[in-house]
Amino acid sequence: MTERTLMSDADMRRAVVRIAHEIVEQNQGCDGLILVGIHTRGVPLAWRISQSISEFENGPVEVGALDIGLYRDDLQKLGVRPRLQPSAIPSNVDARRVVIVDDVLYTGRTIRAALDAITDFGRPERIQLAVLIDRGHRELPIRPDYVGKNVPTSQRENVRVRLAEVDGRDEVVLTAAPDSESRHRDADTT
Question: What is the pLDDT of residues 113-151, one digit of tens each?
């Protein structure tokens, strides 16, 4: 299978704007709101959502970066060592509404790890989830509050989100997973 484009740069831009509007509407504004992107591609997506919010509200929403490498429960099964990156939460999360932002929602294990990591920074009033792509195949009872696009996939496929800040271009593509990777992959690429 060659790459099949699921979202162009324009599709991604529209999805980010829609998610930004939905977040503000659901939270009745952006007071007490903080966006926390999961490394690697969730961080630039969180910044994009914040920038979009700033275009129609009275300023941007705070953005943080979260590394979940040490919180994953599947590292031994995957046979990988986590690539640790710094978590940078700009302020106390106690009594705040936190929106976790990630590129792809798959099994739910990355989000479970993110929930554990966030609670190490405090006790938010509420935690919500925004993802660019929901590809299904959940292993845990996790559901996003905001979705850019639902993409039904097989477990023998990979969804790759490419962002200009990380990859030099914006697009989402579907590819075949090599047999050894068809069940589980590193969260940054599935």
Answer: 999 999 999 999 999 999 999 999 999 999 999 999 999
Whether residue 4 lies inside any domain: the answer is no
The letter for the amino acid at 38 is I
Angle at 114 between CA 112 and CA 118, to 5 degrees: 125
Contacts of 77 (CB under 8 A, 6+ apart): 184
**pTM score of the predicted model:** 0.90
Residue 178: how many CB atoms within 10 A of its CB? Answer: 10
Residue 18: strand, helix, or coil: helix
Burial class (CB in 10 A: 0-12, 13-18, 19+), 22: middle
Q: Answer whether residue 190 shows pLDDT above 80.
A: no
Q: Does residue 71 contact residue 128 with C-beta atoms inside 8 Å? A: no
Q: Does residue 97 lie within any of the structural domains? A: yes
Show the domain range for 56: 9-153
Using CB atoms within 10 Å of the CB of residue 109, give its burial: 0 to 12 exposed, 13 to 18 middle, 19+ buried.
buried
Inside any domain, residue 69? yes
Residue 177 included in any domain: no
* CATH number of residue 55's parent domain: 3.40.50.2020
Number of domains into which the chain is organized: 1
pLDDT tens profile 65-77: 999 988 877 665 6
